Amino acid sequence: xxxxxxxxxxxxxxxxxxxxxxxxxxxxxxxxxxxxxxxxxxxxxxxxxxxxxxxxxxxxxxxxxxxxxxxxxxxxxxxxxxxxxxxxxxxxxxxxxxxxxxxxxxxxxxxxxxxxxxxxxxxxxxxxxxxxxxxxxxxxxxxxxxxxxxxxxxxxxxxxxxxxxxxxxxxxxxxxxxxxxxxxxxxxxxxxxxxxxxxxxxxxxxxxxxxxxxxxxxxxxxxxxxxxxxxxxxxxxxxxxxxxxxxxxxxxxxxxxxxxxxxxxxxxxxxxxx
Length: 274
Ligand code: PEP
Prior knowledge:
Helix content: 40-55%
CATH superfamily: Aldolase class I
CATH topology: TIM Barrel
Strand content: 5-15%
Shape: globular
CATH class: Alpha Beta
Structural class: alpha/beta
Distance between the termini: 19 Å
Largest sheet: 8 strands, parallel, barrel
Number of strands: 8
Number of helices: 12
Bound molecules: phosphoenolpyruvate
Strand order of the largest sheet: 1-2-3-4-5-6-7-8
Order of helices and strands: EHEHEHEHHEHHHEHHEHEH
């Protein structure tokens, strides 16, 4: 099977709780220089996303390199209300934010984020014009007990079950498969393991929505992606990008991953669909 040219490759930086505003600005300016120097394919076949902490979002929107998008790392599902410490989809849109990462395993693990709330967040993001990036993935225990596929299917079914079929593509929905045992551990899923789970995810998307829609949704891999392993992961038919933590804190390594995606699209003839 050859790699789809319908779906863009998305390379996303998750900064987590890192970077003061000055550092954020420096990174974005440096990234803009890299992107200016490598225009071929950027913005059309390869999309770049940066997800800074809330404190740098406004600045990131103002300093966003052309052809990149700024995502928040979380949001509340209501548009306003008595939810101390939370940030609403309306507030993010007001800042000019493009999308939102939802259900990252660190939020599930440390902040009790559960699939029920995620289902509401996905719908709210789509309604407010924020592109949802839904994270799913199994723990080491779940993988070792043979439950990885079931866990991921259940996470998708619950979190996406309330999303209108039309919104599944018009919202810019993407999925990030992030095996919990591979996040920040230096342990990467082999390209075979990752491709297998991505194919499972696409199959589940087809049963939640339909085959045509499943073919249009980008499924990113996350878990210790670096410039040295990005190419072999992205070469797989169902791996449409990378959600990157540690290696996205420096432009040198993040741009190495973007470069791997650009090399791949340069070697893959476009069907003219993008
Ligand atoms: C992440 O935070 O989503 C992630 C994949 O982190 P890392 O690349 O450091 O494993």
